[in-house]
Amino acid sequence: MTTFEGSHDGKGMRVGIVCSRFNEFIVTALLDGAKRGLSTNGVSESNIDVVWVPGAFEIPIATKAMATSGRYDTLVTLGAVIRGETAHFEYVAGPVADSIAQIQLETGMPIGFAVLTVENVEQAVERSGPGAGNKGEEAAIGAIEMANVLKALR
Questions:
Q1: What region does 37 belong to: left with phi over 0, alpha with psi -120 to 50, or beta?
Q2: How far is the first Cα of the chain from the last one, in angstroms, to the nearest whole number?
Q3: Which residues have C-beta within 8 Å of that of residue 37, sequence separation ≥ 6?
Q4: Residue 84 contacts residue 93 (beta carbons within 8 Å)
Q5: Distance between CA atoms of 36 and 137, rounded to whole angstroms?
Q6: What is the model's pLDDT at position 111?
Q7: What CATH architecture is 15-145?
Q8: Distance (Å, rounded) from C-alpha 130 to C-alpha 1?
Q9: Are the C-beta atoms of residues 74 and 109 closer than 8 Å to each other?
Q10: What's the distance, CA 143 to chain centroid?
Q11: What are phi and psi of 68, to 5 degrees?
Q12: Residues β-bridged to residue 20
């Protein structure tokens, strides 16, 4: 039996990060976490590109452009969709997640997903804080692992 597991070794990897400017104070904290996770696992800051888009709805098109560019080993998506009093949440959260999953399948590019879908600002702050549980950091480390798994499988 052969077992394939990805390591968290990001040395030499090129990583693209797509950030939503909407709810920027949350996304900036997620980005700090993602950069921390990448750095801790050997990704050089000079090998990280960050793209800012207006909102979560625009994350998929920038992600697809990066995934098909040939420049990256893995990508990370960061955003925060907070439920409000309108149906906006339903029209954004699900389609963004579905689109990122589809981009992975179409391109073979592993994509760490930390587009928070939360009920309120307090939940967003809890998931983007500087300590353990920062979803940006978790997504970045998972993206490295998946890049290594796919490399081993190919």
A1: alpha
A2: 17
A3: 134, 136, 137, 138, 139, 140, 141, 144
A4: no
A5: 7
A6: 98
A7: 3-Layer(aba) Sandwich (3.40)
A8: 40
A9: yes
A10: 8
A11: -95, 0
A12: 53
8 is catalytic: no
Segment 1-39, tens digit of pLDDT: 999 999 999 999 999 999 999 999 999 999 999 999 999
Question: Tokens 């959260």 belong to which residue?
Answer: 93
The answer to whether residues 37 and 130 touch, using CB atoms and an 8 Å cutoff, is: no
C-alpha 135/C-alpha 5 separation (Å) is 21
**Which of 65, 55, 58, 57 minimizes the C-alpha distance to 16?**
65
Q: Cα–Cα distances in Å, from 55 out to 47, 91, 129?
A: 24, 13, 20
Find the helix packing angle between 135-153 and 24-40, rounded to 10°. Answer: 50
- Is residue 17 within 8 A of residue 49, CB to CB? The reply is yes
Per-residue pLDDT at 90: 84
Using a 10 angstrom Cβ sphere, with 0-12 exposed, 13-18 middle and 19 or more buried, the burial of residue 148 is buried
Q: Which of 12, 88, 120, 130 is labelled catalytic?
A: 88
Distance CA(32)–CA(50), nearest Å, equals 12
**pLDDT score at 148:** 98
What's at 99, amino acid-wise? S
Collect the ranges in the chain with pLDDT lower than 70.
none
